[in-house]
Amino acid sequence: MAQYSRIEVATVMEKTGMVPLFFSSDIELSKKVLKACYDGGARLMEFTARGDFADEVFGELTKYAIKELPGMIMGVGSVTDAASASRFMALGANFIVTPVLREDIAIVCNRRKVLWSPGCGTLTEITRAEELGCEIVKLFPGDIYGPQFVKGIKGPQPWTNIMPTGGVSPTKDNLSSWFNAGVTCVGIGSKVISKEIITNKDFNKLEQKVREALDIINKVRK
Q1: For the stretch 85-113, what's the b/e string if a residue is b when 16 or more beta carbons lie within 10 angstroms of its beta carbon?
Q2: Can you spell out the DSSP letters for 29-59?
Q3: CA distance between the termini of the chain
Q4: Homologous superfamily of 6-215 in CATH?
Q5: What phi, psi does 69 have (nearest 5°)?
Q6: Using one digit for the tens of pLDDT, what is the confidence trace for 140-161?
Q7: Whole-prediction pTM
Q8: Phi and psi (nearest 5°) for 97?
Q9: What ranges do the domains of the chain cover?
Q10: For 40-62, what is each residue's pLDDT tens digit?
């Protein structure tokens, strides 16, 4: 069962401005990645369910977060059907992120008052997601649409909260372009949690990269 309401999750997404994305089938490695992100200031983690036994790893990771990392909000990404969403929510997922807009996922998440963020690519999809109760829409793939698309959406729909994923880099120029366009937060995966960091198990570097990205976001917003 979720530890945080969808409003609480949406508030933390907006406050921190960044959701790290990560997947590994190695539970111990995943714990170290999660702790490095936490120590760097991140308070959300999207565990992307892209491998075998992802649910088992997520369950253990969530137990670890509850016990050792107070305030860390665990969610699951790359969810493609309602059954999977229900399974991850039973394992403690506080938010569900999907690559596409699926109404069956909206129904099971809303039933439990769990935040869900569907991947959308048109104003029609975004509007439908909001009609289905979506608090923060995922713009995916972000590099295809870019900040100008966000500006276009925010014109007629200033109330829309957008989180681009894909095409987001932890640099001042890139983050400035997204936040100046009006995004609520950003999702970042390998540009922060890089293959190099994972291979070298350089968790101090990961902590530093997360902290630097969050610092940039705070400065851009000011």
Answers
A1: bbbbbebbbbbbbbbebbeebbebbeebe
A2: HHHHHHHHHHHTT--EEEEE--STTHHHHHH
A3: 36
A4: Aldolase class I (3.20.20.70)
A5: -125, 80
A6: 999 999 999 999 999 999 999 9
A7: 0.96
A8: -115, 135
A9: 6-215
A10: 999 999 999 998 899 999 999 99
